Amino acid sequence: MTQYAVLIYERVAPEDLPPEIMAAHEQLPQRISELGAREVAGLALLPPETATSIRGDLVTDGPFIETKEVLAGIFVVEARDLDQALAIAKMTPIVNGGVEVRPLLGFQVAEQS
């Protein structure tokens, strides 16, 4: 199976997400499994104000790209093809934003030394 990253963009801060959206996020791995795919990993990001960007030697506070939507989280799925990955991405609970799907060259968890 091919791995895809699903990037979640929201205009609503994570702490302001309605409980039903948070519950839907918690149920998403099971729903993905029911489609015959698998969620490999997932993570939520703190608000963009906590980001630090680096451009060459310049280090600045804030996200690299500023938009109305912010990158709120990412999850990685194994799906048989792009169509299945898109079907999974469409199930992502969103309040006011969208998702982006990108095929991955490879996803590995670094071993701790």
TL;DR?
This protein is α+β, with helices and mostly antiparallel strands and 113 residues long. The chain has helices at 19-34, 82-90, and strands spanning 2-10, 38-44, 52-55, 58-61, 70-79, 97-103.
Can you give a write-up of this model?
By secondary structure, this protein is of the alpha+beta class. It has one domain (2-103): Alpha-Beta Plaits (2-Layer Sandwich), CATH 3.30.70. The chain has helices spanning 19-34, 82-90; strands spanning 2-10, 38-44, 52-55, 58-61, 70-79, 97-103. The chain starts with a strand and ends in a 10-residue tail after the last strand.
What is the ordering of alpha helices and beta strands?
Answer: EHEEEEHE
Biggest sheet architecture: 4 strands, antiparallel
Envelope shape: globular
- What is Rg? 15 Å
- Domain module tally: 1
Oligomer status: single chain
What is the typical, i.e. mean, pLDDT?
92
Architecture, CATH level 2?
Answer: 2-Layer Sandwich
> What gap, in angstroms, lies between the N and C termini?
29 Å
Q: What structural category do the secondary elements indicate? A: alpha+beta
Counting H and I runs of at least 4 residues, what is the number of helices? 2
Q: State the helicity in percent bands.
A: 10-25%
Output the CATH topology: Alpha-Beta Plaits
Using DSSP, what is the number of strands? 6
Q: Which percent range describes the beta-strand content?
A: 35-45%
Q: What is the fourth-level CATH superfamily? A: Dimeric alpha+beta barrel
Protein name: YCII-related domain-containing protein
Family: Belongs to the YciI family.
Pfam families: YCII
Domain YCII-related: 3-107
